[in-house]
Amino acid sequence: MNDIPLTHILFLSTALFFIGIYGLFTRRNMITMLMSVELILNSVNINFVAFNKWLFPNSLDGIFFTIFVITIAAAEAAVAIAIIINLYRSHHSIDVEDASELKY
Amino acid sequence: MSATAIIFYAISAFILGTGILAVTTRKIFRSAIWLLFSLIGIAALYFLLQVEFIAAVQIIVYVGGIVVLIIFSIFLTQKSGDEMPKPIRSRSLFSAIAAILGFAFTTNLIAHYGFNELSNTPFAFDISKIGLQMLSTTEHGYILPFELVSILLLAAMIGCIVIAIKVKPEEKK
After folding, report:
1. Which of A44, A102, B102, B125 stands 20 to 30 A from A8 (CA)?
2. Does residue A29 belong to any structural domain of this protein?
3. Using CA atoms, how far apart are residues B155 and A46, in angstroms rounded to an integer?
4. Which domain range does residue A48 map to?
């Protein structure tokens, strides 16, 4: 396993992070924006595991942070989807451009 | 180039390809399915990195939980066969420029940083060690974040029920 340098895993997670950023910028549908956020959180998890494995192989802190990030991502997705469904009930659209009542 | 490296680059290409398809395809249901493949690829990467516990959690929580939740919310709110409107050309152009510039900047930083890797120490642990450290109250224990996360999950569960509950018209005053 150690014939792969750490930097290549970091390149992978950086690319995944900016794919998520691109999706967050271009999409205007709330569900697809949520999917982009999931991609970003996953790239962070890859970073935690890779740093734990390559730089600090004697401790487990990266593993714990990954577990907590996954848990909080699950809670965040559940709350976000409840808000999206409620917004769809009142506005019949989940486009972020249509949800502008708090703007002014 | 060893077999591990070849498998790693294949998995990386799979993750990035399906990730790009997930953020660019215009049918929302296909987007969710590409996201599913991307998350499975990340789980495969965790298996390759020999963190089997995280890989199992990734499959259970992301693939079995979040993606299914997203697919259900697509069914509840969208016509899943329809194509989404095309993003404005200038917006997608500038987003792509921002993403590519950020990627170039960050990879440049990473490539020139120089990590001191401890490649001689093997990274091996049993799952019981995770459980013991997670619930220990000593110096490196994680009992406090564990309890905080459990309260957060309870709050999220109650919050979801309160937000998504349907108010009957006769109960409204």
Report:
1. B125
2. yes
3. 27
4. 6-91
Q: For the segment B30-89, what is each residue's pLDDT rounded down to a tens digit?
A: 999 999 999 999 999 999 988 999 999 999 999 999 999 999 999 988 776 677 778 788
Is there a domain that residue A1 lies in? no
Chain B residues close to A36, C-beta within 8 Å: 23
pTM of the model: 0.90
> Which residues contact residue B95 at a Cβ distance below 8 angstroms, ignoring those fewer than 6 apart?
A21, A22, A25, A26
**């990340």: which residue's tokens?**
B42
ipTM value, please give it.
0.91
Residue with tokens 């220990």: B136
Q: Chain B neighbours among A 9-68 (CB < 8 Å)?
A: 10-12, 14-16, 18-23, 25-29, 31-32, 34-36, 38-39, 42, 45-46, 49-50, 52-61, 63-64, 66-68
Q: Is residue A70 part of a domain?
A: yes
The count of structural domains within chain A is 1
